[in-house]
């Protein structure tokens, strides 16, 4: 399906890319199998001059996800990965990705994680998110080629990103805002109207799983 979608994107000249979940590609069965599947998608995306984001799932898969991303990043530049601000380890994971000049979608995190692994309070998650975002905006990160996708509907964080990037002269082509389909339409329109890149994260597939996805996000 992903290979067909990438071809359809090219066929219709759509400004769109794909996001993949590694458990859908066999990670819970075999890491090697998963890597083979990921590479086939990245190869197709490379041929089509497109891009692939690797989603971050629950903490049981975090280490393998980071490892697969950094391994693929050595061969493919058209790949990014999501980091969840709620996880304590994301700060150190981000440093590894910045060193590789990688692309990161920063999200707050939608999984229930134990308190020894993750922030439990909204304020703590928000603070961790801002810290990760500001790290991506640091001069050395930008010089290494790091690219930030700000995945949030939080108007306060979006405003902070806009203020900071204007204040420090960070070009709008060094980051983008990413929001979920069907949520925060007014925010999406307002930010886009101001000239910022905005990408809308859209579920695609059969109706029932797609509806479950949207309900979970809400």
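Sequence proposed for the structure above (218 residues):
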């Amino acid at each position: 399906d992903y290979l067909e979608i990438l071809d359809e994107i090219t066929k219709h000249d759509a400004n769109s890319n794909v996001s993949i979940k590694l458990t859908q590609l066999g990670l819970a069965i075999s890491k090697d199998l998963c890597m083979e599947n990921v590479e086939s998608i990245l190869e197709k995306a490379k041929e089509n001059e497109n891009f692939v984001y690797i989603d971050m799932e629950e903490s049981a898969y975090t280490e393998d996800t980071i490892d697969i991303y950094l391994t693929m990043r050595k061969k493919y530049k058209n790949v990014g990965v999501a980091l969840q601000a709620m996880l304590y380890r994301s700060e150190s994971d981000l440093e590894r990705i910045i060193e590789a000049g990688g692309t990161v979608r920063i999200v707050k995190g939608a999984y229930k994680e134990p308190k020894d692994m993750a922030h439990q309070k909204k304020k703590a998650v928000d603070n961790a998110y801002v810290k990760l975002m500001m790290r991506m905006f640091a001069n050395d990160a930008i010089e290494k080629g790091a690219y930030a996708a700000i995945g949030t509907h939080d108007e306060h964080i979006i405003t902070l990103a806009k203020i900071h990037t204007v204040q420090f002269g960070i070009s709008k082509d060094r980051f983008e805002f990413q929001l979920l389909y069907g949520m925060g339409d007014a925010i999406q329109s307002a930010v886009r109207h101001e000239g910022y890149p905005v990408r809308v994260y859209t579920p695609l597939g059969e109706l029932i799983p797609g509806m479950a996805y949207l309900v979970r996000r809400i």
